[in-house]
TrEMBL record:
This is Vesicular inhibitory amino acid transporter. It comes from Oncorhynchus mykiss. GO terms for cellular component: cytoplasmic vesicle membrane; inhibitory synapse; presynapse; vacuolar membrane. The keyword Transmembrane applies. It is found in: Cytoplasmic vesicle membrane; Presynapse. It is a multi-pass membrane protein. GO terms for biological process: gamma-aminobutyric acid import; neurotransmitter transport. Antiporter that exchanges vesicular protons for cytosolic 4-aminobutanoate or to a lesser extend glycine, thus allowing their secretion from nerve terminals. The transport is equally dependent on the chemical and electrical components of the proton gradient. May also transport beta-alanine. Acidification of GABAergic synaptic vesicles is a prerequisite for 4-aminobutanoate uptake. It catalyses: beta-alanine(out) + n H(+)(in) = beta-alanine(in) + n H(+)(out); 4-aminobutanoate(out) + n H(+)(in) = 4-aminobutanoate(in) + n H(+)(out); glycine(out) + n H(+)(in) = glycine(in) + n H(+)(out).
Length: 471
């Protein structure tokens, strides 16, 4: 979630698209040099593992590279930082002030703690890509999150770990598509409140707007428009913050509470965790960097910056509206300003939907249904699959139109697993013999906290939805 992001969803879609359509295309290569991680994604993993080794930029360590990786341009540390910033900043930060309303002062602590933990787990996840050689030098022997998971499960079931990671990825992508539909419907309702249409009618209009996603073959135009919308969010953020500063005379710290409802607090935990999820694409990002030795510092400053921005935005918005804070904070703006901001956000949400939609369709098509991608046009099997996915996300958004509860549910189910639980678990299994007692204790603590947050947040989010439907 996030205010600047093509986010990892866009990145994942670009990676999938690049790996299937970009090889040997000069025009595409020119675009790839400008657009996120697509410029660095090489051939598939098996070819990479079988390729010869070359020295890495971070100190001469040998790392496996594929033939394509030698022809792809690498990205700088600043570009890598921009990608991570996109992943943890974006449209879903609109729900953070409401999460702060539900969690009080503990929410402020959570925003800082989540940033610190996600920064740490991102680093240990990438460390699992490496094994020490006989001379004690780290060598990159794995490429993706799935590779790490498969390495940890190779004795039990060689492909089990990768399937678990893929399942979590599909769930998170699907839930993100649903959230885009929910927020689009919400924005339409509040932007055109003078029209006497029920929310269901706006949901149908949103659904019809996205039907052309079924025919997507090339994401270049979509990704370029999404990039422009991401840049436009700078303006939106400035407008919201400027309005909050203009209303400084209304601020009161008394609105921030110490005692909070425990169940609502746990839902807020999921919302905040979801806003920091980026681990799924970090292995690919680190492999694309010119100087991999800068990865750790890059993670530190990007997460620190995200923490400052999110905390500032959430606090300013909450101090301005207090108990009247809405699930989507732009709904609190005056009607004239709200319409301008909401229309910009609506465009962003609608243009962002095709990226996770395309990614989840590709994952299901290639990994589950074993369908061959059509080279020209879209074949019937792909069309049916995408139609079912679009209809499924529409129906779930129609019957679960609660933005914060959906964010909390997604953060509790997949966010905590991919961000807290699995990185710590994999790090303990792969690096146990070389870890200090302090790091073992830290990993076990994060693993325990992640498990508790995931289970309790899942229960409370589902309970909250049941209560919301019963009203």
């Amino acid at each position: 979630m996030s205010f600047l992001r093509l986010d990892w969803l866009g990145t994942q879609a670009e990676l999938l698209w690049t790996s299937r359509f970009l090889h040997g295309d000069e025009e595409s290569l020119g675009f790839a040099q400008r657009d996120e991680l697509s410029r660095t994604y090489g051939e598939d993993q098996e070819e990479t593992r079988e390729s010869p080794t070359t020295s890495s930029p971070d100190g001469g360590n040998e790392t496996p590279t594929s033939p394509s990786s030698r022809t792809c341009l690498k990205i700088t540390t600043w570009e890598a930082g921009w990608n991570v910033t996109n992943a943890i900043q974006g449209i879903f930060v609109l729900g953070l002030p409401y999460a702060l309303l539900q969690s009080g002062y503990l929410g402020l602590l959570l925003l800082i703690l989540a940033a610190a933990i996600c920064n740490y787990t991102g680093k240990i996840l990438v460390s699992c890509l490496y094994e020490d050689n006989e001379e004690g030098q780290p060598i990159r022997v794995r490429d993706t999150y799935e590779d790490i998971a498969n390495a940890c499960c190779k004795r039990l079931c060689p492909l089990l770990g990768g399937r678990v990671v893929n399942a979590a990825q599909v769930i998170e992508l699907m839930m993100t598509c649903i959230l885009y539909l929910v927020v689009s419907t919400n924005l339409m309702c509040h932007s055109f409140s003078f029209l006497p249409l029920p929310p269901a009618a706006w949901s149908v209009m949103t659904f019809l707007t996205l039907v052309p996603c079924m025919l997507i073959q090339d994401l270049r135009v979509v990704s370029r428009l999404s990039l422009l919308c991401s840049l436009a969010q700078f303006l939106i953020t400035f407008i919201v913050v400027a309005y909050c500063l203009h209303q400084a005379h209304r601020w009161s710290w008394r609105r921030m509470v110490l005692l909070v409802d425990f169940e609502r607090f746990l839902v807020s935990v999921g919302v905040i965790i979801f806003s920091y999820t980026s681990q799924i694409f970090l292995p690919t990002l680190e492999g694309s960097m010119e100087d991999r030795g800068d990865f750790s510092d890059m993670m530190s400053w990007t997460h620190s910056l995200a923490c400052v921005l999110k905390t500032t935005f959430s606090v300013l918005a909450f101090l301005t509206w207090g108990e009247d804070t809405k699930e989507v904070i732009t709904d609190n703006l005056p009607i004239g300003l709200r319409m301008v901001v909401n229309l910009c956000l609506l465009a962003k949400a609608l243009l962002s939907y095709p990226l996770p939609f395309y990614a989840v369709a590709e994952v299901l098509q290639s990994s589950v249904l074993r369908l061959e991608g059509a080279q020209v046009g879209v074949d019937m099997g792909t069309l049916v699959l995408r139609g079912c996915l679009l209809l499924m996300t529409f129906l779930m958004a129609l019957y679960m139109p609660h933005f914060s509860l959906l964010m909390g549910l997604t953060g509790s189910v997949t966010g905590a697993a991919m961000t807290f639980i699995l990185p710590s678990l994999f790090h303990l299994q792969l690096k146990w013999t070389t870890m200090s007692s302090r790091l073992k204790a830290l990993d076990l603590l994060i693993l325990t906290l992640g498990s508790l947050c995931s289970l309790s947040g899942l229960v409370c989010s589902i309970k909250g939805m049941i209560q919301a439907f019963g009203r």
